[in-house]
């Protein structure tokens, strides 16, 4: 699971897609493509965005749901929380106490 997560986060286009889903969750492929083009100047095809979304879904960062003809994409931050739980960062006060 962690390998898929780091692979998904390793690509700048996928991170931009996640940023857009933070701004507005529940977007269709068309909406995501439009935002990437208009806001970020990315000339990526719908198929390319769809492939990026597939990688994000495999990592658990994006969940999709169908409503009629439309497929909506939502951000899922649970995999990110699991990573932070795996490697917890000590509190700043704990670090000062343990410093010689």
Walk me through the structure.
With 100 residues, the protein is an alpha+beta fold. 60% of the residues lie in helices and 12% in strands. The chain is built from six helices and two strands; from the N terminus they run ααααββαα. Helix 1 packs antiparallel against helix 4 and helix 2 packs across helix 3.
Morphology: elongated
Q: Whole-number radius of gyration? A: 17 Å
Q: Please, how many helices?
A: 6
Determine the fraction of residues in helical runs and give it as a percent range.
55-70%
For the termini, the CA-CA separation is: 38 Å
Number of strands: 2
Derived from helix and strand composition plus strand pairing, the structural class reads: alpha+beta
Low-confidence stretches: none
Task: Determine the strand fraction and express it as a percent band.
Answer: 5-15%
Element-level helix/strand string: HHHHEEHH
């Amino acid at each position: 699971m962690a390998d898929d997560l780091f692979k998904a986060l390793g690509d700048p286009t996928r991170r931009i897609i996640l940023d857009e889903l933070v701004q507005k969750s529940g977007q269709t492929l068309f909406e995501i493509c439009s935002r990437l083009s208009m806001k970020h100047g990315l000339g990526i095809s719908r198929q390319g965005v769809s492939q990026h979304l597939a990688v994000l879904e495999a990592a658990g960062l994006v969940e999709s749901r169908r409503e009629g003809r439309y497929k909506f994409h939502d951000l899922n931050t649970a995999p990110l929380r699991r990573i932070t739980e795996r490697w917890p960062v000590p509190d700043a006060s704990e670090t000062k106490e343990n410093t010689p």
